[in-house]
Amino acid sequence: MGESLHQPLQRYRQQAIGIGAENNRTRHECDDTGVATIILASTSPYRAELLTRLGLGFETMAPGVDETGYQAVSAHELAGLLAQAKAQAVAGSRPGRIVIGSDQVAVCEGRFLGKPGSIEAAIEQLQFQRGKTTLFETAVCLVDANGILSQSC
Fold first, then answer.
1. Which end of the chain is more exposed for a tag (fewer CB within 10 A), N or C?
2. Active-site choice (31, 32, 66, 103)
3. Which residues contact 1 (CB under 8 A, 6 or more apart)?
4. Which of 13-27, 61-75, 87-101, 119-133 is predicted with the least confidence, judged by mean pLDDT?
């Protein structure tokens, strides 16, 4: 599937903040055309905060992926499918950029727990989980500027 997720991001970060250069430059939030090089295929403020902590400039873009139509054997597989779909959806409209897609799927006793959508559904989910273990599977998919896919689940 290409190189690991860490390698292209580390390379970008080193270039952006001038690691190895004689004078450390401030990080660049945009390339020389004024456009962000990294796009987070998400509108989640939590994912944006995680990327901000890395010190990388980026923009966010809603991937517009319908998460309901996916059939998966496991939460692990579903998280990977959704992360890939999100990254590829945005990469298709933003060629030449590094796109990061991510998803997280909760599962409790074999039941996938999606976004509840209402207070009543949230209460039902919480009651179902009471006294049980809930597992969160997270996946990240990166499509680099050349369209090469890297994924970590």
1. N
2. 103
3. 149, 150, 151
4. 13-27
CA angle 13, 49, 92 (to 5 degrees): 65
| Cβ count near 95 (within 10 Å) | 11
pTM assigned to the model:
0.72
Could you give the CA distance from residue 126 to residue 140 in angstroms, rounded to a whole number?
26
Copy the structure tokens of residue 4: 């690991």
Known catalytic membership, residue 66: no
Residue of 113, 63, 109, 125 lying closest to 88 (CA atoms): 63
d(CA 144, CA 153): 17
Only one residue has tokens 């209402």, namely 118
CB 41 within 8 A of CB 99: yes
108 bridge partner residues: 111, 134
What Rg do the C-alpha atoms of the chain give, in angstroms?
Answer: 18
